[in-house]
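Design job #97: recover the sequence.
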């Protein structure tokens, strides 16, 4: 079904299947496609973010299952806390799936990484649809689910335009400057290949 995603500034994407059919002012897209379903979002539509710490967050971090909260807490585990866990392929795969979901909740549509050594992680990420961006070496700073953490400049995935893959995010902020200031936890929705894969409840 053709869907128009529109933000509070009146900018919109018309999404047909996995592609952006047209990007532009909401009024124009509605005039061209009067029968389209319309999703109106608070804040701004942007290209999705690229998280520079794909390897660290998905292959070197354990994301606890909510059922493990009493024992392990809810925050990602690394270092000695990770070493103390009995990790097998099933547990790594489940952790990677939860890690991807947490990335999506921050408007991330791609992660920068070296090739994953762990097959369970690699398979989980591939099935999720999260994009992968090659990188050389480890980026500076502490890994974070929020690409803006620590004052870093966020990196957007390639610009969204007519004919490109429908991979974008919506942040509940008035403009890009506020997004930099408040961070990616303001995400209200993330779309991958035309699918709404995260929506804040």
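Job complete. Output follows.
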């Amino acid at each position: 079904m053709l869907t128009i995603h529109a933000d509070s500034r009146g900018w919109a994407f018309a999404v047909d299947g996995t592609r952006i059919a047209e990007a532009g002012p909401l009024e124009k897209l509605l005039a061209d496609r009067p029968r389209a379903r319309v999703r109106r979002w608070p804040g701004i539509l942007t290209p999705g973010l690229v998280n520079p710490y794909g390897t660290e967050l998905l292959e070197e971090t354990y994301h606890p299952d909510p059922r493990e909260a009493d024992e392990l807490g809810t925050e990602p585990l690394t270092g000695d806390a990770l070493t103390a866990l009995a990790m097998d392929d099933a547990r790594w795969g489940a952790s990677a799936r939860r890690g991807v979901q947490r990335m999506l909740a921050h408007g991330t549509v791609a992660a920068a990484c070296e090739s994953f050594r762990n097959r369970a992680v690699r398979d989980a990420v591939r099935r999720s649809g999260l994009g992968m961006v090659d990188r050389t070496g480890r980026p500076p700073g502490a890994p974070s689910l929020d690409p803006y953490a620590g004052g870093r400049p966020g990196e957007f995935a390639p610009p969204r335009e007519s004919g490109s893959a429908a991979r974008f995010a919506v942040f509940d902020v008035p403009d890009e400057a506020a997004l930099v200031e408040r961070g990616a936890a303001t995400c209200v929705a993330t779309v991958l290949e035309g699918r709404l894969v995260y929506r804040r409840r």
